[in-house]
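Figure 3 (text version): structure tokens given as input.
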């Protein structure tokens, strides 16, 4: 069929995002294979401590060794720095000197969840419970009647550490937040959706069996304590020295008859953490030194000693640069960063909050997000034209299909990433990540093609 002059002009001048499955069907099976490892990562890395542990194991298998300050490294050498067991930095040394800049790729490994309060254990009307404080932005009603698993670390009085993981293995008990039956929820139904279940109603059911002693005042609470003591040596005071969290017990699964999608908890942002990690691990002798960072606390503002608002990355870079006798500020100024975080995939069931021309869609590849923030770009890093050009050039040079996107309509909401924190270090930064359906829900959905092509984008960036 001969194209008209108008069709030729349209093809030359107009921007059109294409579906990967339509354009490159040969990559469907590659994506399926890649995502088997991703699903395994999700199941073994539900909290940041587990993500770091699992990532270290993967890194050491690929030849990474702990970073040694002031040591001189050569092209292709691979090192990692484990920060307090809750975030990790991995580096592959490049052909160029550090003064030419490094390529940062930074994702977060924490996800919304229910944390236990410091003094969580109580009983009421012959049922034992944990009190929780939700972590990050959640729709609280989604966490009712969802099977939950218990993860975390307890420091006993003698200084020994106990790592908890209950509810993930066959035969394990699970935990749950109860909800009212429809027959008795007339008043509850009058609440706003945000208060369908209130924060102080997110109480975890632990058990309903007492210690068989009528002289004990809190027999149901004591039964739970006796189980924890028998299995882990815990007493109630040990909760004050603990980080314990409740996460969905569901494992990562394929979604849809065509198995094209992945459903799991914590894909924001472990989908970017895994793809960035794999691109880092497979990097051999890059042009620029790569610095891949998996961070904590993004969902509550990137605070603390393991979050991007802290100085942990700056201190690492100071140590890295010291061996070459350069100033860290010069290295950072010449560097570029991919803030690897997800965006909201267009949901045809709820189209009103999206602006179609600037929404991201499933199966069209990673989303390049020039700015995040809320409404008037508040709390955003707004990437420059030059930064956009560089990142787009990397993807186009490796034939990586990608798309542009922003987080919903201007006045519909918004959100932030770690981009502004790395940009505050004088590093050119832009967000790139996977579009996600049902973001921040206990069960999020992503496209396997998008996951695979995000990995390809990070790999192109690390060349």
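Below: residues designed for each position.
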């Amino acid at each position: 069929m001969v194209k008209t002059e108008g069709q030729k002009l349209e093809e030359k001048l107009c921007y059109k995002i294409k579906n990967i499955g339509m354009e490159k069907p040969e990559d469907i099976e590659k994506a399926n294979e890649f995502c088997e490892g991703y699903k395994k990562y999700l199941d073994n890395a539900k909290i940041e401590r587990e993500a770091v542990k699992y990532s270290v194991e993967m890194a050491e298998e690929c030849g990474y060794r702990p970073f040694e300050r002031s040591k001189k490294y050569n092209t292709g050498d691979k090192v990692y720095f484990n920060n307090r067991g809750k975030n990790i930095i991995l580096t592959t040394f490049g052909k160029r000197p550090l003064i030419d800049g490094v390529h940062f790729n930074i994702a977060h490994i924490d996800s919304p969840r229910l944390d236990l309060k410091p003094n969580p254990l109580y009983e009421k009307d012959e049922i034992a419970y944990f009190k929780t404080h939700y972590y990050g932005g959640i729709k609280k009603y989604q966490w009712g009647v969802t099977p939950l698993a218990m993860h975390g670390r307890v420091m006993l009085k003698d200084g020994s550490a106990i790592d908890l993981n209950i509810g993930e293995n066959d035969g394990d008990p699970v935990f749950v937040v109860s909800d009212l039956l429809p027959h008795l929820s007339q008043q509850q139904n009058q609440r706003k959706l945000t208060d369908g279940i209130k924060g102080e109603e997110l109480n975890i059911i632990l058990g309903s069996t007492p210690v068989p002693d009528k002289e004990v005042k809190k027999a149901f609470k004591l039964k739970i304590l006796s189980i924890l003591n028998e299995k882990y040596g815990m007493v109630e005071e040990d909760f004050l020295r603990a980080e314990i969290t409740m996460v969905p017990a569901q494992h990562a699964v394929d979604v849809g008859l065509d198995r094209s999608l992945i459903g799991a908890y914590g894909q924001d942002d472990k989908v970017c953490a895994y793809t960035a990690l794999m691109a880092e691990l497979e990097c051999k002798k890059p042009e620029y030194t790569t610095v891949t960072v998996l961070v904590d606390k993004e969902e509550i503002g990137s605070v603390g000693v393991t979050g991007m608002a802290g100085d942990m990355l700056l201190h690492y870079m100071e140590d890295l640069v010291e061996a070459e006798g350069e100033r860290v500020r010069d290295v950072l100024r010449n560097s570029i960063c991919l803030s690897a975080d997800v965006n909201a995939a267009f949901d045809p069931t709820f189209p009103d909050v999206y602006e179609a021309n600037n929404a991201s869609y499933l199966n069209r590849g990673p989303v390049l997000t020039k700015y995040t923030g809320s409404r008037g770009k508040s709390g955003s890093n707004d990437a420059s034209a030059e930064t956009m050009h560089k990142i787009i050039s990397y993807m186009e040079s490796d034939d990586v299909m990608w798309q542009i996107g922003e987080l919903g309509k201007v006045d519909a909401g918004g959100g932030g990433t770690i981009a502004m924190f790395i940009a505050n270090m004088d590093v050119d930064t832009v967000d790139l990540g996977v579009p996600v359906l049902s973001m921040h829900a206990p069960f999020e959905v992503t496209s396997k093609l998008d996951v695979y092509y995000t990995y390809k984008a990070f790999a192109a960036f690390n060349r």
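The domain at 5-111+265-461 is CATH 3.40.630.10 (Aminopeptidase).
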